[in-house]
Amino acid sequence: MKPLRIALCAGEAxxxxxxxxxxxxxxxxxxxxxxxxxxxxxxxxxxxTSWWDASELSVMGLAEVLRHLPRLLRLxxxxxxxxxxxxxxxxxxxxxxxxxxGVEKWLKxxxxxxxxxxxxxxxxxxxxxxxxxxxxxxRVLCLFPMEPPIYAKHGVDARFIGHPLADAMPLHPxxxxxxxxxxxxxxxxxxxxxxxSRMGEIARMLPTFLETADRVGAQIPSLEVLIPAADEHCxxxxxTQLRQTPLAHAHASVLDGQAQQAMIASDVVLLASxxxxxxxxxxxxxxxxxxxxxxxTYRIVKLFGLLKSRFVSLPNVLAGRELVPECxxxxxxxxxxxxxxxxxxxxxxxxxAVEPEFIRIHEELRRDASHQAALAIGELLGRE
Length: 384
Fold this sequence. Notes:
Order of helices and strands: EHEHEHEHEHEHEHHEHEHEHEHEHHEHHH
Distance between the termini: 13 Å
Helix content: 40-55%
Largest sheet: 7 strands, parallel
Number of domains: 2
Mean pLDDT: 93
Strand content: 15-25%
CATH superfamily of the largest domain: Glycogen Phosphorylase B
């Protein structure tokens, strides 16, 4: 048989990393395969011929999207035609659903087999979107076990492959090693604050998180506060806020990245919902979820019942019950957040009761996701 031709498209750094791991797993199964498409540096290093760089798709915010829309539409037209002319055996859209699902649908209508890696969060917002995704992708790869049954209700072929973070993180992270790495030498408890990685999230959540940390520090002396900054812009915003809201009862350190190390080093984590909650669970740390959106957006979500899940944080969603407190919207106050953090810090038995469930979920998600993805793609192509 002739070597496989596999076209791919990834956007942003997370998609580039996911794509690089997938390409390496596919190359193990199909050593002569050819890879081409939209790729970042990690995918290129893994052997993908890059027609366009993944940074071309890294556009965030409504105003920025509108400004770049003509370029993005032109890029999508040119890219999908180039893929079709290359005659690949399969096209794999890696994340970036706003771009990739349209490309997949166009190619699928022209006889190209398509895979979407990985599923958007249909379990949280719009289950009916599963049917639309099925119109684009012959097979959907899912990070979480509750997702394939949702797709099955709409007749869509979806496979649970596990989560790369669960593969990468140890079942029992070493807190002392993380503290040495971050040069934490004090004897006091450590609180990791993760208000989010976007400027809007930092502006909205960090003042509340800092006041919360100060309340905790007033009750527990020698509190050390770690605040990871995703990039230099986030660091500037965090440091500016710290000058405006200095901590009177705790010492704060702003870190360059190192969010995972900060969580492992901590005694407790305060974070906005998202992937960070999954990382804190995999780090086996007690956490409190504090999240607030604009009042207008919140009213729209409530009015139209847009949030389909009972919970917003992945530990609770995956467990099907409340493992960690979620302080949302009007409940997201320094008083409530500090109360929940102090409960974890003062009652070690509270976390001892949920830690086995954290470990169980970690083991369920640890499936060697890239290997499972390569298996599912090979099966789709009849090349098991």
